[in-house]
Amino acid sequence: MLVLVVPHAQGTAPPSPLTLISRDGRRPVPTTLVNGQEFIALDDLASLFQLAVRDDALAGGVTVSYKGRTIVASADQPMASVNGRVVTLPAAMTRVGRRLFVPVDFIARAVAPIYDTPIDLRRASRLLIVGNIRVARVTTRIDAVGPPTRATIEVTPALLVSQAADAGRVLVRVEADVIDPAPPPAPAGLIDQIQTGTQTTTVAIALNARAGTPRVSTTTTTESTRVTIEVPLAAPSQDTSTAPPPPALPALPAPTGPAPPALPALSGPKLQTMVIDPGHGGDDNGVRGPKGTLEKQVALEVARKLKTLIETRLGVRVVMTRDEDRSVSPDERDAIANNSKADLFLSLHANGAPSADVKGTEVYYLRLDRAGEEARRSTAATELVLPVISGGTRPIDVIPWDLAQAAHVDASSRFASMLEEELEKRGPMGPRPLQQAPMRVLSGANMPAALVEIGYLTSADQERSIQSADVQGGLVQGIYDAIVRFRAFLESPPSQ
Ligand SMILES: [Zn+2]
Predict the structure, then answer these.
(1) Distance 390 CA to ligand 1 centre (A)
(2) Given the DSSP bridges, would you call strands 273-278 and 317-320 parallel, antiparallel or unpaired?
(3) Is residue 217 part of a domain?
(4) Which strands sit side by side in the sheet containing 85-88, from one edge to the other?
(5) How many of the other CB atoms lie within 10 Å of CB of 403?
């Protein structure tokens, strides 16, 4: 019988390199993923930090030295000796081709302790900060949808900020060398978009057309600086067609570094919210493997890992249709997706087959029946309603709710193909890797949607492998890579 093959010592590129920030500027630092673990080449590290590296056959590893201080990295154990003190690493050194790679944590745990200037590895924001750089952690949140809509920008540590505001937007510049932004919240109320760039130190908040002039105030404590923004509705009597134009924004002082690039037209990112739908739950176990593994359980495990990766790497809001062991009807799953105005829907399942030999990952998107085909051809029919969580129903689209998916089948098919291509790089695919099928849970989703059967639990091999962190990590990475590609597809200008 075949066993799932996890490629060993064969790296793949993570979605973005680390960015090294020092007094000299910024530069990308390439890393590579091996079995879900992020590694950096030892020769790259040596040139970045002026380290000397030599093989140390006696110690059974590699000696790294810097100004008379040494690190001995073990060849086969996930540990290193740093100036005589042992530190653990998430993985041992590995060889890819002729180059040696160490886990990126090697930088923080082994190099930083022997280095002259501070080194701060911030994995969530992909930053490697070298030297005394003023880094501001910037967290934006919406406190009240309103109106008035209230938002807070928290800057840690306390630093000077300058701001400018008019009825269209609020700009807040932080007097730091670099900002380390937390993923911004989804826009709400009178706020249409929040941009926290990593290339500038400005937070830009775009306001709704109905917004009046916002009030912005700043308070500072010993720990942080807090900018409070209150956006009222525009005065109803105001006739905007004859009103004088609002005064131009005052220029922001430009203390350090290049000016931020001109703000684009603030058309929001096309992938802001996605829904992950772990199949089954509660009384409904789904498929049960020969050893008792339940589909509902592995679907939830993989969904949680995927959610974490998407939120930390992409800053996309992820809504789960369930995050515990409860039963959820297909309609409720779609209602959650439609209600949260998600831009993408992904359902996760594990498969079962009468033959224990069938295995592999499969991707599905919706096959329309005849009514669905008709709905797709004439999307301007009558006003119909979709179920939503709070208020029963509300008009969303012009197609019957169980045919909501009809308008998105082309995009869903693109997404499904990307999933198939990316998952194929990560593990074995099933006998029919990409399929179209009528599926209740996909039909009511008013957004591009696909379903992944991560593997066959009825295969004893796959039941075992699918529970391993490596295999789950590979699946999650493959799905993530497909989402990154699909986001680029959504944001690329139409080709015709
Ligand atoms: Zn299922």
Answers:
(1) 27
(2) parallel
(3) yes
(4) 52-56, 61-66, 69-74, 79-82, 85-88
(5) 24
Residue 93 pLDDT > 80? yes
- Which pair of structure tokens corresponds to residue 170? 């609020």
pLDDT tens track for 411-455: 999 999 999 999 999 999 998 999 888 777 788 888 999 999 999
Kindly report the CATH number assigned to the domain that includes residue 109.
Answer: 3.30.457.10
d(CA 295, ligand 1 centre) in Å: 7
> Containing domain of residue 356, as a range?
273-491
Whether this model's pTM surpasses 0.70: no
Of the residues 130, 146, 167, the one at which a domain ends = 130
> How far apart are the CA of 351 and the centre of ligand 1, in A?
6
Residue at which a domain ends, from 130, 145, 175: 130
302 CA to middle of ligand 1, Å?
13
Three-state DSSP state, 167: coil
Q: Find the 286 Cα to ligand 1 centroid distance in Å.
A: 5
356 CA from centroid of ligand 1 (Å): 17
Read off the DSSP letter of residue 281. Answer: B
Distance 7 CA to ligand 1 centre (A): 28
Number of helices and strands (H, E) in the chain? 10, 30
Q: How far is the CA of 452 from the centre of ligand 1 (A)?
A: 9
Take residue 469 and report the two structure tokens written for it: 């962190």
Rama region for 280: left / alpha / beta (φ>0; ψ in -120 to 50; rest): left
171 CB-side CA count, 13 A: 20
Instruction: Give me ligand 1 centre to Cα 393, in Å.
Output: 27
* Cα(347) to centroid(ligand 1), Å: 9
